[in-house]
Amino acid sequence: MADATQNFDVAIIGGGPGGYVCAIRASQLGLKVALIEKRETIGGTCVNVGCIPSKALLDTSEHYHRIKHEMDDHGITVSSVKIDVKKMMARKERVVKELTDGLNFLMNKNKITVFRGTGSLVSAKPDAVEIKVEGEKPASLIAKKCVIATGSDIINIPSVPVDGKNIITSDHAIALEETPESMVVIGGGVIGLELGSVWSRLGTKVTVVEMLPDILMGLDASLRTLARRTLEKQGFTFKLETKVLGAQAKGKQVEVKIADKDGKEESIVASKVLVAVGRKPFHDSLGAEKVGVKINQRGRIEVDAHTLQTSVPGIYAIGDVIEGPMLAHKAEEEGVMVAEIIAGKPGHVNYDCVPFVVYTWPEIAWVGKGEDQLKAAGIEYNTGKYMFKPNGRAKAMNQTEGQIKIYADKRTDKILGVHIVGPNASELLGEAVVAMEFGGAAEDLGRSFHSHPTLSEVMKEAALDVNKMSIHQ
User: Fold this and answer.
1) Catalytic residues per the record (predicted)?
2) Model pTM?
3) Using 50, 70 and 90 to split pLDDT, how confident is the model at 455?
C-alpha cells in the first residue's frame, strides 16, 4: 500500500547526470527536492553502464597496448605481458561503485529525498504535478514543478536480434569475461569506436560497418580522415556506406550479411557482433502524453528553447529526451539551467559550445563548427592548424600523431570551431571551450601564455596560424 502523498517543490524523474545535477542545484537554491530513480544506484546510464565503465576499460586496455607495443622505444624491456580480463572487469566495477557511493553521499548531504522505482505522471495542474512511483516502496508525490530526465535507451536492429552472448550491446561489451577473437561493430559512432578500441587493443580483430560515408560525421572532414587512418593502423577495418542486412548466430560464431552502396552483398563471420547504432529517448512508461506533454516525430519531448519547459506549464525536460546531442555534460548544464529557472533565477545553456569527445587513442575532440558546416552556412572564415609531431612534449611522450585545427571568423577573428585528433585531446579542448564561451578571438588564444613544454602549445600554434603568425610552423 502506497504511503500518504508527499509534497515537494521539485520532483525530478531520472537520476542520471542531468537529473542528479538538477537535484543538487535545486537543493542548493533552497528548494525541497525529490529524485526518482529506477536503478539501485544514482548516475544513470553514464555512471553505471556507459561513460565511466567504458573509460575505465579504455584506460586499462591502453596501458596494456603501450606496454606491449611502445615500451621498447623508451628502452624498457617487458616480457610475457598478459591481460587478466576478469581482473580488468573487477577494477571497472570498483570505479563505478566508488562513484555511485559518492553520489549517494551527495544526495544525503544535500537533503534530497530519493525514491527507488519507476516514476510516471498522473496529472498536471498549476503548481501541482502528481507523480506515482512504482517499486518496492510505492509512493505518491505532488510537486510544484517536475523535471523529466529519463535519458535514453539503446537502439536495436530488428534484423540483428540481440541475445546478450554472441550479438551484444554496449551493456554486454563492457562486461565480457574473455577477449573475443573477432568482433563486427555495427555503427561508426562514439560508442562503437570506443568499445571497438578496448577489445582491439587486447587482440580482437575489429571490423566497423557504417551506413554513412565516414565515421564521426560531426568532426571536421580532414581530421575525420586522419582519425580513421590512425584507427586502421591500429588494426581496425572499416566498411563505409555499407548496410547490415541481418545477423544470425551459428554456434559460437555470428554470420553478418552486409551490402555496399552498389548493392553488392557479402558475409562476415565474427565471434561477437556489437550493435552500436545509437540511442533513442526513453519515456515509454512516463505517461507524458497522457498529461499533455508533446512529443515530436523523432520521439523527443518538445520544450521551449529558452526555459526547457514542455507544453505543460510546470513540467520541464532535459538531457537525452529533448533535441540536441545525447551527452552527459549537456544534460548536466540543462539540469543546472532548469533548477535556476525554477528558483526564479536566470538560466542559460550555450549550445554553440557543447564539446564532443571520443576516447580512442589518439583522442578525438571538437567544439563548434567544422569546414563543411561553415561553408553550408555561408560564413567566411580563416583556418589555422598545427601538427603534434613538432611539439617538444609530444616527442618526449612518443605521442606525436594528430593535429589541431581552428576556424575563426574572417572579419572578427572570433573562434567558430576547434577540432583535435591527438594525445589528451579531451583535456586540451577545455581551453577552446572557455575561449569560445567568452567570445574569444584566435589571436586572444594565440597570444596567451602556454607553459613550455606542453601539448597545449599545439593549440597556441594553431591559433597563431589562423592569422599566419605561427612561430614554429
Assistant:
1) 452
2) 0.96
3) very high
